[in-house]
Amino acid sequence: MKPLWIGILSAFFFAFTFILNRIMNLEGGHWAWSASLRYEMMLPLLLLLVALRGGVTPVFREVRSNPGQWMLWSFIGFVLFYAPICFASVYGPGWLVAATWQLTIVIGLLIAPLLEENWKTRGLSASYKSAIPAAALCTSLLILLGVVLVQMGHAASITSRELLLGALPIVVACAAYPAGNRKLMQISGGRLDAPQRVLAMTLCSLPFWLLLSLYAFVTSGPPSGGQLYNSLLVAVFSGVAATVLFFQATQMVRSSPQRLAGVEATQSLEVVFALIAEVIVLSAPLPGMLGWAGLILVVGGMIIHSFALLPKEAEKTRTARTESAGS
């Protein structure tokens, strides 16, 4: 259960992303500044964190061993993840973006077989059979239904264009984030811990963030003091704390598709945290009946994921005790 609790804690810190991005948008901040400043501010914090633990040299060594793959998957896992989320926050409240983001639980399961190095030789159907537990897929589809209901409940108050621009970028982000995370876990082969892996991805994605900053400067001028301050909060709470915790949790269960799906499902609690914070901080209206029904399905799906792992954890503990007693 430890990886699940770590995942829940990361969801709490991730929720700051949706609220602070919404605040910056309401104050007139450009979404491209919100996206790029987070990672530019994360870099010195991560360098300090990893340096204090004596682990900077392995990061550079690992990146130098395979720079093309690190650049590619860091772009996918960070840039194609966070830039669309910031763009989507222009068109909807934070809790709605957080709810749509839960599609990552389903998409993460569906793309897992495509990330296997031998899926072409084994065949796609065989890869799906081995990589996607049926129970996890069914539960994830329940979460997907919840997301659809949340969107339906919100659709009446916005135009179809706003709904499209608020939802499609999140779909891109939902595929990019688990793909980048899982692929770089494979590439690094356990040689980097979670803070080191986040630092490596931040370094490799930095050129793209600098280009996005240039676009933001040309389009809207320099960021305001408020946007700089809120971006720093996002960098600390979401960029460093939440990302390191989530990567740590997924790394602990990387060998088990069922447990990995459960950890990724903990991120559904971001919806609850974001909704509570947005109602308190921004006086946002509460969702309607369809929205509440969708939120219940999203959170309920995460709880089912969690309880599905309990027998496996108990069995693992009994086996370990038996082996220890036998020795």
Describe this structure in words.
The chain is mostly helical. The chain has one domain (2-326). 84% of the residues lie in helices and 0% in strands. The chain contains 15 helices and no strands. The chain has helices at 2-26, 31-52, 56-65, 67-88, 94-101, 103-111, 119-122, 124-131, 134-155, 160-188, 194-220, 225-252, 257-265, 269-282, 289-326. The longest helix has 38 residues, at 289-326. The two termini are 26 Å apart. Mean pLDDT is 81; it is low at 319-327.
Provide the low-confidence segments as ranges: 319-327
**Computed CA radius of gyration, to the nearest angstrom:** 20 Å
Oligomer: single chain
Tell me, rounded to a whole number, the average pLDDT. 81
Determine the fraction of residues in helical runs and give it as a percent range: over 70%
Identify the overall geometry. Answer: globular
Number of strands: 0
| Amino- and carboxy-terminal Cα gap | 26 Å
The ordered H/E elements are HHHHHHHHHHHHHHH
Strand coverage percent: under 5%
Structural class: mainly alpha
How many DSSP helices? Answer: 15
Largest sheet: none
Protein name: Multidrug resistance efflux transporter family protein
Organism: Paenibacillus zeirhizosphaerae
Keywords: Membrane, Transmembrane, Transmembrane helix
Transmembrane segments: 41-60, 72-92, 98-119, 131-152, 158-177, 198-217, 229-247, 292-311
Write a short abstract of this structure.
With 327 residues, the chain is mainly α. It is built from 15 helices and no strands.
